[in-house]
């Protein structure tokens, strides 16, 4: 749906062979398995126009590709598969003869504002550490609002079609946005949220990434992925410090320990793993958990984590288990929290440590007393599932967003609804860009 709205807004209907419509689908289907960031045969990555243009060991693929497809240069591509249909090879020829332009809406999004006919599903929302901003995902962008919801401060439009996680550095000088374009690439974008300036990005996998978290010291960003990998990015350079494959399912959440030296990852493989943030070495499992793990948050001052599951339970665990602890010993479990009315999607711990907010596929956010594990209050008002929940830095407010596309801000003590707003500027009727 969102994609179509976007295409309507930006399409230039070319009759000739075009990259987005003709070339890209062939590359995705026939070539990407061997030519992608994680498996870059002959140094060639075909998952984006820029990477394809850059080419491999023998230079830009725009110059080499037709010869490889016809077999004039050996080995013929796609290696190990039947040769492409003559009509498909002709599409490459025609596209190259016409200048090998990038006509994909991904690229054109950077030069013109994205148009919305309806609010997109909210998958990520975070407050800046000084409480002045509320950053919310749009389509292909992060929209930074003043926290009263009255003004858009910055629109951070990047390449990724979806932004699934947002994290600020504690100093407020960096915003990391994690996401990607499904079945194409995963990306972590780094922005300066004070002026809206794009700093750098890292393309990581051939599918979206999840649960981006900036380390407390601001030096790193951890992120999980749909190919079961975990990645660590250096914020100063955007370079990948390491990746590991210790999980056996999608890695949906990551969080650092207090000293930034270790981090916890949670996965659909039902494991929560503690890992060294400098080397990527596996340290230990965060003990006995049940169900696919979907969300994680940390106590603001202690190495204690709350973990949520797809089968609706949340657990509060000490991050470290004593070395001599036996298997099946559950002494690091602090609380098991009541079953929720829907799968858990997002959790946040208030900055004074007193409350844990749990959101999920039910339209109610439950707030728990973090000391007792008992329900403290319930914030209502959403009509459908909630995918992101965040306490304001002073702990007085709670922001939520989800399927209905509206940001809601509650008084975190009483759950009284204070503010509801659409995070995107809505354009009515005319899909060509007027009305912004
Ligand atoms: C099974 C793996 C595989 C598939 C699938 C595959 N390639 Fe390749 N590709 C390779 C390998 C290996 C090389 C290096 C060949 C050599 O030089 O010996 C290569 C090299 C290339 C090069 C030259 C890169 C350079 O500059 O060195 C191009 C261009 C290329 N492939 C295009 C494609 C296209 C287009 C497709 C899809 C239609 C495709 N490949 C599918 C494995 C693959």
General description of the model:
The chain has 436 residues and is mainly β. The protein has 2 domains: 2-103, no CATH class; 125-421, 7 Propeller (Methylamine Dehydrogenase, Chain H). It is 12% helix and 39% strand. The strands form 7 sheets. Strands 3-4-5-6-7-8-9 form a 7-stranded antiparallel sheet, with no helix packed on it. Strands 10-11-12-13 form a 4-stranded antiparallel sheet, with no helix packed on it. Helix 2 crosses helix 5 and helix 4 (61-70) packs antiparallel against helix 5. The longest helix has 13 residues, at 19-31. 45% of the residues are buried. Bound molecules: heme C. Residues 30-31, 33-35, 41-42, 44, 55-59, 61, 64-65, 68, 75, 77-81, 84 line the site of heme C (HEC).
Per CATH, what is the topology of the largest domain?
A: Methylamine Dehydrogenase, Chain H
Distance between the ends: 20 Å
Number of domains: 2
Shape: globular
Low-confidence stretches: 1-14, 429-436
Provide the helix percentage: 10-25%
Strand percentage: 35-45%
Number of helices: 6
Ligands bound, unique? heme C
CATH top level label of the largest domain: Mainly Beta
What is the CA-atom radius of gyration, in angstroms?
23 Å
Q: Could you give a short account of the major beta sheet? A: 7 strands, antiparallel
CATH architecture identity of the largest domain: 7 Propeller
Mean pLDDT: 89
Sheet with the most strands: spatial strand order: 3-4-5-6-7-8-9
Number of strands: 29
Helix/strand/pairing category: mainly beta
- CATH homology group of the largest domain: YVTN repeat-like/Quinoprotein amine dehydrogenase
